[in-house]
Write a structure and sequence with these properties.
The chain is an alpha/beta fold. The protein folds into two domains: about 80 residues, Leucine Dehydrogenase, chain A, domain 1 (Rossmann fold, 3-Layer(aba) Sandwich); about 130 residues, Rossmann fold, CATH 3.40.50.720. The chain is built from ten helices and eleven strands. It has a six-stranded parallel sheet with strand order 1-11-8-7-5-6. Strands 3-2-4 form a three-stranded parallel sheet, sandwiched between helices. Helix 7 links the parallel strand 5 and strand 6. Helix 2 crosses helix 10, helix 6 runs parallel beside helix 7 and helix 6 crosses helix 10. The protein is globular and about 50 Å long. The protein starts with 7 loop residues before the first strand and ends with a helix. The structure holds nicotinamide-adenine-dinucleotide (NAD). Nicotinamide-adenine-dinucleotide binds next to helix 10. Pathway: One-carbon metabolism; tetrahydrofolate interconversion.
Length: about 290
C-alpha cells in the first residue's frame, strides 16, 4: 500500500474549473436579470506560437463561461497607429467590457503606449497606471490576473493570511510587485527578493509563504524553503529532458515537495488560475456599469 504524502499539491486546474463554474452561473443569472452579456476582446499581434496558444485558451475559457468574445488579429508588421486605432475602437464599443492586448508585442511597437491607451475600466490585465495606483492605495479594481489567481489559491489553502511572512521572488510589474501588494493588503509581512538581492535563499528560508516568479528553471531548491511553507510556483520555463520538451517551474518540485505544507505544480498550478482570473476581471469590469 502506498504511504499517504503529507504534502498537498494544490490543483490549479480543479480550482480554476470551480471558479469558472461559479462565474458561468453568475453570468447566466446577470443576463436573466437583464444585464448585458460581458464581452472580452483580445488583440493578438503577429503569430508567436506561445501567444497564439495563450489567446486560444483565453477565448475558449471566456466562451465556456458564457462571455461574448472576439479576437482582433493584426499582422506582426502593423504600425503603432494601426494598433492604437484598434484599441481606441474597442475602448468605445459598448459590447466590450474587457480588453487585453497579448504581450509581448513585436519590438517596433510600444507596450507602454498601448497599456496606457486602454480604458482603465476595461483593462482586464490590470496593467494601466490607474489600476496599479488603485491597487497600491488599497482601492483595487482590476488586478493583474496571475497574482489574483495566486491569492485565490493561498486564501483557499490557508484561510486568513494575517501575520504570515510572505517572500516574493521577482519584482516585475506583471507578477512580483502586484503580488507583494496583494499580500500586504492581506496583512502579511512581505519581503521582495530580486536579482540584486544578497543571499536570496536565506531570506526565502524565513517565508511561511514563498512565491517564485523569476523565470529561471528550478532555481528554488529545498535549501530555500522553510519546513511547512506554502510554495506558489509562477514560473513557466521550457526545458528539454531526454530530447523531449518539458515545462518546469522556478521551483525544483521533486526536491522541495516533501519539505513544504503545500505546493503548486507546473504545469497545472498557477497557469489555469491566471485564465480563470481573466474571466473574473471581465465580469468585474462589466459590473462597473451596474446602476
Ligand atoms: P520578469 O523577467 O519580468 O521578472 C523576473 C524577476 O525575477 C525580476 O524582477 C528579477 O529581478 C528576478 N530575478 C531574476 N533572477 C533572479 C535570481 N537569480 N534570484 C532572485 N530574483 C531573480 O518575469 P515575469 O514576467 O515576472 O515572469 C516570471 C516567471 O513567471 C516567468 O517564468 C514567466 O513565464 C512566468 N509567468 C507565468 C504566468 C502564469 O500564468 N503562470 C504569468 C506570468 C508570468
Amino acid at each position: 500500500m502506498q504511504e499517504e504524502s503529507p504534502v498537498k499539491v494544490i490543483d490549479g486546474r480543479k480550482l480554476s474549473d470551480l471558479l469558472l463554474e461559479e462565474m458561468t452561473q453568475e453570468v447566466q443569472e446577470r443576463m436573466q436579470e437583464g444585464y448585458p452579456q460581458p464581452g472580452l476582446a483580445v488583440v493578438l499581434v503577429g503569430e508567436d506560437p506561445a501567444s497564439t496558444i495563450y489567446v486560444r485558451n483565453k477565448i475558449r475559457c471566456a466562451e465556456k463561461a458564457g462571455l461574448f468574445s472576439l479576437v482582433k488579429r493584426l499582422d506582426a508588421s502593423c504600425s503603432q497607429q494601426t494598433l492604437d486605432d484598434v484599441v481606441v475602437e474597442l475602448n468605445e464599443r459598448e459590447d466590450i467590457h474587457g480588453i487585453l492586448v497579448q504581450l509581448p508585442l513585436p519590438k517596433h511597437l510600444s507596450e507602454e503606449r498601448i497599456i496606457n491607451l486602454i480604458d482603465p475600466t476595461k483593462d482586464v490585465d490590470g496593467f494601466h497606471p490607474v489600476n496599479v495606483g488603485l491597487l497600491s492605495s488599497g482601492q483595487a479594481k482590476l488586478v493583474p490576473c496571475t497574482p489574483l489567481g495566486c491569492m485565490e489559491m493561498l486564501k483557499r489553502e490557508m484561510g486568513d493570511l494575517t501575520g504570515k511572512h510572505a517572500v516574493v521572488i521577482g519584482r516585475s510589474n506583471i507578477v512580483g510587485k502586484p503580488m507583494a501588494n496583494l499580500l500586504l493588503q492581506a496583512n502579511c509581512t512581505v519581503s521582495i527578493v530580486h536579482s540584486k538581492t544578497i543571499d536570496a535563499a536565506a531570506l526565502c528560508r524565513q517565508a511561511d509563504i514563498l512565491v517564485a516568479a523569476v523565470g529561471v528553471a528550478e532555481l528554488v531548491d529545498k535549501s530555500w524553503v522553510k519546513p511547512g511553507a506554502v510554495v506558489i510556483d509562477v514560473g513557466i520555463n521550457a526545458t528539454e529532458v531526454d530530447g523531449k520538451r518539458k515545462l518546469v517551474g522556478d521551483v525544483n518540485f521533486a526536491d522541495v515537495a516533501d519539505k513544504c505544507r503545500a505546493i503548486t505544480p507546473v504545469p497545472g498550478g498557477v497557469g489555469p488560475m491566471t485564465i480563470a482570473c481573466l474571466i473574473k476581471n471581465t465580469l468585474t469590469a462589466a459590473k462597473q456599469h451596474d446602476i
